[in-house]
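User: I'm putting together a teaching handout on how multi-component assemblies are represented. Below are the sequence lines for each component of a complex, exactly as they appear in our records. Could you produce the 3D structure of the whole assembly as structure tokens, so the students can see both representations side by side? Please keep the chain order the same as the input.
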Amino acid sequence: MIPYFTFYRTPRIIFGAGSIQEIGRMVSDYGNNVLLVTGKESLTRSGKLNKIVRMLEDCSISFSRLSVHGEPSPELVDDAVSEYRGKGIDVVVAIGGGSVVDAGKAISAMLPHDSSVVDYLEGIGGSTHSGVKVPFIAVPTTSGTGSEATKNAVLSRIGDDGFKRSLRHENFVPDVALIDPELIIFCPPDITAACGMDAFTQLLESYVSPESSFFTDTLAYSGMGYLKDNLIPACTGDSGSIDVRASMAYASLISGITLANAGLGIVHGFASAIGGIFSIPHGVICGTLLAPATRKNIAVLRSERSIESLVKFARIGALLEDKTLMPSDDTDKYCDLLISTIDRWTEILHIPLLREYGITEGDLDRIIGLTGNKNNPVQLGADDMRYILSARL
Amino acid sequence: MIPYFTFYRTPRIIFGAGSIQEIGRMVSDYGNNVLLVTGKESLTRSGKLNKIVRMLEDCSISFSRLSVHGEPSPELVDDAVSEYRGKGIDVVVAIGGGSVVDAGKAISAMLPHDSSVVDYLEGIGGSTHSGVKVPFIAVPTTSGTGSEATKNAVLSRIGDDGFKRSLRHENFVPDVALIDPELIIFCPPDITAACGMDAFTQLLESYVSPESSFFTDTLAYSGMGYLKDNLIPACTGDSGSIDVRASMAYASLISGITLANAGLGIVHGFASAIGGIFSIPHGVICGTLLAPATRKNIAVLRSERSIESLVKFARIGALLEDKTLMPSDDTDKYCDLLISTIDRWTEILHIPLLREYGITEGDLDRIIGLTGNKNNPVQLGADDMRYILSARL
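Assistant: Of course. Below is the structure of the complete assembly, with chains in the same order as your input.
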């Protein structure tokens, strides 16, 4: 039985070692005046960014360059739009981690409009975006957010009145996702670990989401199959392996496609709440909370005898042992295996505790009050949420 | 290892029983002046088409209606474009089988342009299409061509100087594919059978294509998993089952996505050649030739010891028995199982022989001369092609 589902457009995908060589050709499809959004990090130090700039110059493409530091704020987007609106930008190209890609995506969405991006943020502004935007090409240099394939850009204003919200429209799916593992080998181990845990969280949460479909399940399952064997190597001895990096990049890309279509669960509910108050990398929040969240989800599903959801968790547990779950298999055993594996990953990868970012017991009520269940397979209450947060305080 | 791959945009997909109710909302995203392209067949007789028309009227959408009979010719497209160009058509909606969807797709592509569609046909015209088109919504009422997800429209001029060629651009991927199995239950058994064999051919040919990627393989494999249990029921006792029809519609949709990205093989090479000369349904050509083509492909791959390709065929053979091919499994056994299953399907479904459409021994040289290998996993020569055609003369 294939129940009702909808599926948003995917970007045009160019994937593989050396695919950055296509950047000139991809940009030329849209014009020759580019706004290039980049980070400040490793790609510059490695000299790769200069090579990319020369590729654009070789194709007679002119560009302005904007550098983004940290997770993007509405002010950053509004300032960039003020500066470049009316300057005939044909296409926005973002080369960087999830923050850079989200910044580029939001700028491309706002360039043709006069208002502030805040007006269109979910749960904050009251306006509906028309979807009209400048074409956008995403070139990720980390493997985590999957933003290269999603229809939303996450913007944050951090602080007591802070928020972390999405600008979302199906037209905001990037026109092109250009994914070159050779650009990702420069990503340092701690960021690789946090991003990798984020990608796994996205795959698992979309896989067990009530909004998942057979289509997203097929993709998410395949993404987790690649991730499981490559997450630890990517962060440890094999970080320079193109094969390892390609597998992680593939898993991340797929996680973006599945989250855009099936949604996410409680871990991302926490990430949205915590990320608006504290300056803590998104991948760290997800990575640190995934194990206790999965333990709690499975415990509650067991108490409710929600066999169908438990089987989905068990299927991923079996996958971690390269097994296909059979009807005769012990669901409990594989659910437990899933939990213990995520525990082990969290430990091996030294994913930080929340307290390392200044979060204390006294913050929990406030975080819980701001946390939504999103598309979690089961509704968790305040006590359940407290259990999850306390486990990683 | 994930090698280099590219992936074109998918349409926005709305899939499921009753999803036709969304038609008004989908159309309204683009405007309120529709060119509605339909077939002449079962959907009208069932009264369903009238219901759809009322749904549009209820949304204050005005429409012109064009009825298409048989596989579309360049003249049909040019005539329709002459009639409707300049009339402010906001969106083209095609509701019908593969021919109707292809006609609608070509008309949507040509409405903003002055020239004949022949100028842009692959291997015929000398011009390159800009990709500028009127938005296009595809609503398939058969499960076969996958045209609701592909970037090409096949047009034919049948006869001695005939051709069957594609109008192709990545922008021609429909903006929306609306797939409602409730519209497909009216499809009669012989068309269901031919279309179903076409869908399986597309899935298998794209799966074993040298241009396949891990991404398309994941999808094609899942599509064949659904098709194998539902092809015979859809054509026999369970043609009225929404579950059965949904599975076939899903397989067909996936086949469109995978063929658009991985290409097709020798069976579609024949279909292109034969379809330009003889008036024979596309699905019949594919269905009748798939078994001998698979037998010949596997024989040549064995003689060349092309283990990698043989393993891919064997994996599908194993899937037909609900098994995952393991490294210790006998590849030959599962390749043979694949061939014998396709033979059995061909027999049970009474897929016609070529002679029933007037093709004789004397036509073979000409057909072979016009047949290309496309993305077949192995290059077949004239003798190999003669073997395949002769088996189904």
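A couple of points students might notice: The interface with chain B takes residues 1-19, 170, 213-215, 218-219, 222, 226, 243, 246-247, 250, 324 of chain A (CB under 8 Å). The longest strand of chain A covers residues 33-38.
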